[in-house]
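Section 5: illustrative case.
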């Protein structure tokens, strides 16, 4: 993610918030790439990933984690210089409420950063990852978890502008890290097995066809992490 890293290297942020942080993966990027920060807080609706996150950042007292709903935080107005959301937009049932809250808690001259895998614009090895994500969406929905399909670049931008935010920078970015690509390859192998428990699903035939498409795409193009659509807004 060379473009994003370059942008972050110019950002001086006193207080940073990472919404839907899970195990703090995006905080890892922020802590390495930001020009400066005084504190980074990661919040999520559950603490499922916090043990791993806390171990990861045990040596940095400026980083901490709290269980909190991103749509209704207890932070005061204008608390943060930078408010981030990475690869979680499609897991949020009430996106307008979330963006309204993110806008409320950022400083007047602060930034909102959204990084999301878009549904469109994926090709080659990156499309393999995007197709895997489509299958995850179908499976999770069948199992009762909220998992919206990934949004298009236009839909993501429209969410941001509808919230009354001004987009100050928008771009696409990719990365090619062998360990992450290997993890995507493992998910290709698991795709057909994943749908075995979903044979009663209304969408089972669609799942089966998609699993086959994933394998075909991988056979022709390989696998790598999907392209990210990145927005900085005020």
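Designed sequence:
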């Amino acid at each position: 993610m060379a473009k994003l890293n370059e942008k972050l290297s110019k950002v001086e942020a006193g207080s940073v918030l990472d919404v839907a942080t899970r195990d703090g993966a995006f905080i890892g990027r922020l802590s390495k790439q930001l020009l400066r920060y005084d504190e980074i807080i990661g919040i999520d609706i559950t603490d499922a990933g916090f043990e791993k996150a806390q171990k990861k950042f045990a040596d940095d007292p400026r980083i901490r984690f709290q269980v909190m709903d991103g749509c209704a935080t207890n932070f005061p107005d204008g608390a943060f210089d930078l408010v981030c959301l990475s690869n979680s937009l499609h897991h949020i049932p009430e996106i307008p409420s979330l963006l309204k809250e993110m806008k409320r808690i950022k400083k007047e001259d602060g930034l909102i950063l959204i990084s999301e895998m878009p549904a469109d614009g994926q090709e080659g090895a990156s499309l393999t990852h995007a197709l895997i994500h489509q299958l995850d969406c179908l499976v999770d929905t069948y199992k009762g978890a909220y998992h919206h399909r990934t949004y298009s670049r236009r839909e993501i931008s429209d969410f941001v502008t509808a919230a009354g935010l001004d987009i100050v920078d928008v771009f696409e970015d990719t990365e090619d890290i062998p360990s992450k690509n290997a993890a995507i390859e493992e998910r290709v192998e698991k795709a057909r097995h994943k749908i075995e428990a979903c044979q009663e699903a209304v969408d089972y035939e669609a799942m089966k066809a998609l699993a086959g498409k994933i394998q075909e795409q991988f056979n022709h193009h390989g696998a790598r992490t999907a392209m990210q659509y990145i927005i900085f807004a005020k």
